[in-house]
Each structure stands twice: as structure tokens, then as C-alpha cells.
Amino acid sequence: xxxxxxxxxxxxxxxxxxxxxxxxxxxxxxxxxxxxxxxxxxxxxxxxxxxxxxxxxxxxxxxxxxxxxxxxxxxxxxxxxxxxxxxxxxxxxxxxxxxxxxxxxxxxxxxxxxxxxxxxxxxxx
Length: 125
Description:
Blueprint lengths: L4 E3 L2 E3 L5 E6 L2 H6 L1 E7 L6 E6 L6 E3 L7 E6 L4 E6 L8 E8 L14 E2 L3 E5 L2
């Protein structure tokens, strides 16, 4: 079981920004792609973004392209999700997860075996 701990969620007004953090281990960051997912009440879990371990290439869901940015800090063993121009429809429980199943990560939740506990993001006026 890999260790993945999310933080940084909160309440923000529409148009605002938040930065989520996913703290993990050096081993995980070196050998696993890290993905961000979200799940709103009554909806399926949705892949938001992911970053590959070897070359740092990234994936974004269409709904967040141009607004969200995924990055990683090897010194802190942390992956970040910078969320700008937030909308009420971005409200959800956000999870980070790890996978090393394929060469490139995706937003398919079934590729990921290890998950964090989640952090709540609420966008409301």
C-alpha cells in the first residue's frame, strides 16, 4: 500500500484558486504516475489530471484544461494540482492516486491501485 495524503482543499468563491497537495514517498514519485480524481455527490469518480513518473508528461480532462495545472516537487515528494478560475461544478471530493500499469497515465480510475483519503473542494458564493 503506497502512502498518499491529500491536503489543501477548502471553500472558495467562483473564480478563485486553490492548490491541492498530494504528499507521498520518493519511491512512489520515482516509479509511479500520480493522478488527481474528483467525485461529486451522486456522480461517478472523474479523472482530472495525471503526471507520468519518467518524463513528467501530463494529462488533463477537457473540463479543466487551461484552468488546472499538475506539477511535482521531488525535494518535497509532493504532487500539486493548481486550480484556477474555479467554478461551482468543480465542487467535489478530490483524491490523488498512483499507478504504474502503463507507459502513460490516464484519467481511467481502474488503472490506479492506491488512493489517498481525499480533500474536499467547495466552490460557492
